[in-house]
Amino acid sequence: MTITLYHAPGACSIAAYVSLLEAGAEFEVELISLAKKEQTSESYKALNPKQKVPYLIVEGKGLSENTAIQTWIASAYPEANLLPQDKFERARAISHMNWFSSGMHPHITRHFRTAKFCDIESAHDDIKVKAKAMFFEQMALVEQELKGRTWFFDHNTACDSYFFWVYDRGLREEFDLAEFSNCTAHYEAMLKRPNVQKAQAHTK
Predict the structure, then answer these.
(1) What percent of the chain has pLDDT over 70?
(2) In what order do the strands lie in the sheet with 3-7?
(3) Looking at domain 3-81, which CATH architecture does it have?
(4) For residue 168, which phi and psi values (nearest 5 degrees)?
(5) Nearest CA among 162, 200, 203, 163 for reference residue 65
């Protein structure tokens, strides 16, 4: 099976990258520089009109959206146990990934790229404050989810690789996340995983 992952260092595509490594998949990585706006190039738009990462090509067919990609990886490599086997718990894991995607990621984006959402510069600081506050509200919920646990479920899953990026991106926004001790312990546990280290090191 021929697999290519389009990935931007620092972007949420690291979640799919880590999961592919955890699955033991054989795949190629094509790096996309968001700083250079390579995602808006004509060649990439022809491949992925959504102009974002991650994007996965499997046997010539394309798949976008982190949750869909993560779910496919788990299904294609069932022996890796990247999602819970129980049907209800599996649905909960997919719900978690959708939560990270739609309930947390947008707040980070509004904090980081405020000008994309509002042309009135005098309003930017207020937007940033509100985006951070809404992100922290969600972090408090995750903190409860991780109470007394190392991972979201009884073993490391695709949910963990996705939330790893969420926490890491919060740090890069210079958010002080120390109050979320369970989330911090999760992040530190993820940093020790060889496949996380390998994905983080791939910047060229």
Answers:
(1) 100
(2) 28-31, 3-7, 55-58, 61-64
(3) 3-Layer(aba) Sandwich (3.40)
(4) -60, -40
(5) 162
